[in-house]
Each structure stands twice: as C-alpha cells, then as structure tokens.
Amino acid sequence: MKLTVVGCSGSFPSAESACSSYLVEADGFRLLLDMGNGALGELQRHCGLYDLDAIFLSHLHADHCIDMCAYFVARYYRHDGGRCAPIPVYGPEGTEHRLTTAYADTPTASSMSEVFDFHTVKPSTFDVGPFTVHTERVAHPVEAYGIRVEHGGKSLTYSGDTGITPALDELARDTDLFLCEAAFTHGKEDIPDLHLNGREAGETATRAGARRLVLTHIPPWTDPQVNLADARAVFDGPVELAAPRVSYEI
Ligand SMILES: [Zn+2]
Ligand SMILES: [Zn+2]
C-alpha cells in the first residue's frame, strides 16, 4: 500500500502544511485518514475531488475533521453531474452532528448523510475496501481512535492524537510504518492524556516493535528537530519527520 502525507501540521496549519490528513491507497482504493484544516485543497494535488472511496476521522477536533464541511459543499453541490453518492465516513459517536453543527447551515438536519454514509467507530476490526483495519481508543480529552491499516501482509499504524497508552503499544505491534504524533516537546510540555512528545513517540515505537517511525502532528510553534532527536535517542529503527507530499510504499 502507499501512504501519502496530505497534511501533517499539528493543531493548526503552518505555512508549509495543512493539518492532519493522510491518503492510503491500495488496489485502486483510496482511504483518507483525517481531513483537518486545509487538507481538502492539498488532497487535490494527489487525486481528484471525487476519487476518495472512504474516510476515517480519528476524532472530532477541528484539526482532524473540519475540512469535511468544505468537502460537503463539493459533494452536495457538485457542478458536473449532480449530487455525489454517499461515501463511507468512519468516525466517533456524534460525527454527523458535529459536522452539521460546524457547517451551521445545511439545507436540512440530515443533508450531510445524503453525501456521507456515517459509520460509528468503536474499538474493533473491520474491512474497508481491500484493507483490514483495527481501531483502538487512545488517550485524548475527546473520544479518539488510533487505526492500524493492513494490506498484503503489511501494516500502517496511525496514532491519531494521544498521550501514552498501552492501547497504542498494542495497535502498533510489529507494524511496518508507525505514523505517530509528537506534538509536545520533552521537558517543556507535560500534560497527560493529551499528546506525546518526541521521546514518548520513540518509546512507544520501541515498546511496540515498530519497524519505522514517522513523527507527525508537530505544531508550527514547536522545533521539529528537537522532537526528531528525542525520538532517535530512544528508538533504534529509522525515524523521520512527516512532510506534506511525501509518499511511502509499505
Ligand atoms: Zn490534533
Ligand atoms: Zn485532538
């Protein structure tokens, strides 16, 4: 499978990157993980507006889902051929209400469901197109999920937003590519059950036995090189910083 970083800025967009959004492709199927601020524009560098097959929202903080409001416009008011058929959207309890409220002025209370087929995520294992996905609750102030995507004997694990949690260690067990958030700086920010720092991301990767670590969700006010060095100090495998428009073959 192929992973492309659409956006990787943490909490708010940077001049260089949209917020969280990652495109996962295999067998011609396109699964988007998160659609944060600015992601819909960036996405169009990688595929057509209507080429997505499914969307997974890790949680309902704006930096992971708010461009779904813009995507609603593109699908509901489509100019070349009428309204789009509903695309599967996997998200936490209340996703439809959250997006409808954020949009503020949908034609009816159920308009979102005319173009999005909402599925409520719980910790579970299920198929999405050619992928087998595993979801686990992670440690964040709102209901939030990490996701493991498997295809052809390979796996990608995305932490979503989380503090330290055994659930993430298990989800990322022996994973081929671990896309892990590192929003905080070791020694500077220390708030439990919110975000990981670079060191904690590296320690999680070590505990999990991940083969490769890609740090993401680093906010513009944080020095990414510090987080990168902190992760490398505690994880023996390859570590790099996520960057927009970079792809990985897994
Ligand atoms: Zn976030
Ligand atoms: Zn969050």
TrEMBL record:
<dbReference type="Pfam" id="PF12706">
    <property type="entry name" value="Lactamase_B_2"/>
</dbReference>
<protein>
    <submittedName>
        <fullName>MBL fold metallo-hydrolase</fullName>
    </submittedName>
</protein>
<dbReference type="InterPro" id="IPR036866">
    <property type="entry name" value="RibonucZ/Hydroxyglut_hydro"/>
</dbReference>
<dbReference type="InterPro" id="IPR001279">
    <property type="entry name" value="Metallo-B-lactamas"/>
</dbReference>
<feature type="domain" description="Metallo-beta-lactamase">
    <location>
        <begin position="18"/>
        <end position="199"/>
    </location>
</feature>
